[in-house]
Design goal:
Oligomer: single chain
Largest sheet: 5 strands, antiparallel
Number of helices: 10
Distance between the termini: 63 Å
Strand content: 35-45%
Strand order of the largest sheet: 1-23-22-3-2
C-alpha cells in the first residue's frame, strides 16, 4: 500500500495532470469575475450563474477543491524531491572514487596520457592545473594508484530541487491566501463612502473620470479614492486599470464602471396637441414631482428602464443596462389628481401610449437621459503574497543553478608505469557539454606538456 502511494505521488503523470487542472481552473478564474454578488451572476449568466456559484467558480481561489488540488500538488513535489534528494546528497558529500582506470574510460569525454614524473609529483601537478580551472579535488590512494575526483559548480546538482522549493513556497502562499485571504467588490457612486469588508477603515469615491478616444470608445477610467479611518481622511490615490491602490494589506483594483439607472436625470419635453410651437423643457428625477411653469400641471417620472422590453408575464422590464431602448413611465397630475400616465420612449416617440384619466392636450416626449456613473472596485487581501514573491525569487535561483551553473566533474586515475605516471581521465557535465569538452582538452593538453 505504502509503495503504491509512493509510486502515485512520485509519478510525473500525476504531477502533469494536477498542473493541467490548476492551469485550467486558473484560466476560468480569470474569465469569471470573482467575488461578485449572487444577483449579478444570475443577471450575467442566467441559470448557469447559479451552477457556477454552487461549484465555487465565483470564489475559485478560496474554494475547497482548488485548495485541495494545491495541497495535493505540493505533496507530489515534496515526495518527488525527497526521493531524488538522497542520492544527490550522497554524491555531493560521499562521492565514490573508483581506482579502476576502466571506470573512467567509459565516460563520453575521456583521454589517456603519460607524464614524465613519479606519481607523487604528477598528483601535485594535476591538482595545480585543476585548481587553476577552479576545480575542487578529492584524493584517494591505494596500491600505487591515485584517484582524483575534481568538481566545480557542485550546487548546480540541486538546481531542480531549489526550483521545487520555490514552487512549494509559492503554493504555500497560495494556500494561505486561499484560506485567510479576503476578496470582495465595492460599487461606489461619487461622494459615497462604504466600509471595506473585514477591514477597520472605509473608502470614499471622490470622483470618477472616464476618458474617451476620438472615436468615442473608452480609453481609460479612473477612480479618485480616499481612505477614511476614524472619520478622518488618511490616504488618497487615483486608481485605474493596472494601477491599484494598497493600504494596510488591502489592494483595490479598478474592475469596472457603469451608470446608475436607478437615479437618472431625465429631460422631458411637454408639448400641446393644439399648439405645435408649444414646448416646455422639464428635468425630472425619479419620484420627484416637478411643476410645469405657467401650467397647473405637475410631472413625475415614476420609473426608468434603459433597455425596455416586455417579459414573459407581459410586464415592463429591462433587457440590459445599455441605453438600447430608454423609456420612462410618466405621470401628469392636476391638483393631486392624475391627468395622464404612460410610457414614453426616447428613440420611438410615436410609440407613447398615454392613459387619459382626465381630458388633456398635453403630450410628453423623452428627449435625453443622464445618469451618475459608479465605479466597481475589487478588494483583495492576500496574506500569502509575500511568500509568493519569496517563492518566485527562489524559483529563479533554482532555474539559474539548473541551466547556467551546470556541475562539471573530472575523474582521474594515476598509476606508476616504468618510472612515469600514466593517467586515465574522463569527465561529465550536466549541460554545456561542448564548452566542457573544450576545457577538458585544454587541461589534458597542459598536463601532457608538464615536465
Amino acid at each position: 500500500m505504502l509503495r503504491a502511494l509512493k509510486n502515485f505521488f512520485t509519478s510525473i503523470k500525476v504531477a502533469i495532470v494536477l498542473l493541467i487542472i490548476l492551469i485550467a481552473a486558473s484560466i476560468l478564474g480569470t474569465l469569471i469575475p470573482q467575488g461578485r454578488s449572487g444577483q449579478e451572476y444570475l443577471v450575467r449568466y442566467g441559470q448557469l450563474g447559479g451552477l457556477l456559484q454552487k461549484l465555487q467558480f465565483t470564489r475559485l481561489y478560496q474554494s475547497f477543491w482548488y485548495i485541495a488540488i494545491l495541497a495535493l500538488f505540493s505533496l507530489n513535489i515534496i515526495i518527488c524531491t525527497l526521493v531524488r534528494l538522497s542520492p544527490k546528497l550522497h554524491r555531493v558529500f560521499r562521492p565514490k572514487c573508483d581506482l579502476n582506470p576502466k571506470s573512467v574510460q567509459v565516460l563520453k569525454v575521456k583521454d589517456r596520457i603519460k607524464m614524465a614524473m613519479a606519481p607523487p609529483a604528477a598528483v601535485q601537478a594535476v591538482k595545480a592545473e585543476l585548481g587553476r580551472h577552479h576545480y575542487r579535488v578529492r584524493e584517494q590512494a591505494a596500491e600505487k594508484k591515485h584517484c582524483l575526483l575534481a568538481r566545480k559548480k557542485i550546487l548546480g546538482i540541486f538546481g531542480s530541487d531549489v526550483v521545487h522549493v520555490g514552487l512549494l513556497i509559492i503554493l504555500a502562499g497560495g494556500i494561505i491566501s486561499g484560506l485567510a485571504g479576503v476578496r470582495g467588490s465595492l460599487t461606489l457612486s461619487e461622494n459615497q463612502t462604504l466600509p471595506v469588508p473585514q477591514a477597520s477603515f472605509s473608502v470614499r469615491l471622490d470622483k470618477f473620470i472616464t476618458e474617451f478616444y476620438p472615436d468615442g470608445s473608452v480609453k481609460d477610467w479612473k477612480s479618485e479614492l480616499t481612505i477614511i479611518e476614524g472619520d478622518k481622511p488618511v490616504f488618497q490615490k487615483s486608481v485605474e486599470v493596472n494601477h491599484p491602490m494598497s493600504y494596510k494589506g488591502f489592494v483595490f483594483y479598478q474592475s469596472g464602471y457603469g451608470s446608475d439607472w436607478e437615479n437618472p436625470e431625465l429631460e422631458v419635453w411637454l408639448k400641446k396637441k393644439s399648439d405645435p410651437g408649444y414646448i416646455k423643457n422639464i428635468r425630472l428625477r425619479i419620484g420627484q414631482p416637478a411643476a410645469v411653469e405657467g401650467e397647473d400641471i405637475t410631472l413625475t417620472a415614476v420609473r426608468f428602464l434603459p433597455d425596455f422590453v416586455l417579459d414573459e408575464k407581459n410586464q415592463p422590464s429591462t433587457r440590459s443596462l445599455e441605453l438600447n431602448n430608454p423609456a420612462a413611465l410618466i405621470r401628469g397630475e392636476r391638483a393631486g389628481a392624475e391627468v395622464f400616465s404612460g410610457w414614453i420612449f426616447a428613440k420611438f416617440p410615436d410609440f407613447a401610449q398615454m392613459h387619459q384619466a382626465q381630458e388633456s392636450e398635453f403630450k410628453p416626449e423623452l428627449k435625453d437621459v443622464k445618469a451618475p456613473q459608479y465605479s466597481v472596485l475589487q478588494t483583495a487581501k492576500d496574506p500569502g503574497v509575500s511568500l509568493i514573491w519569496v517563492g518566485c525569487a527562489v524559483l529563479m535561483l533554482g532555474l539559474f543553478l539548473a541551466f547556467y551553473w551546470p556541475t562539471r566533474e573530472i575523474r582521474l586515475v594515476l598509476e606508476e608505469s616504468q618510472g612515469k605516471t600514466e593517467i586515465a581521465a574522463g569527465g561529465i557535465s550536466a549541460k554545456s557539454r561542448e564548452a566542457f569538452q573544450s576545457e577538458f582538452e585544454s587541461i589534458m593538453s597542459t598536463l601532457r606538456k608538464t615536465k
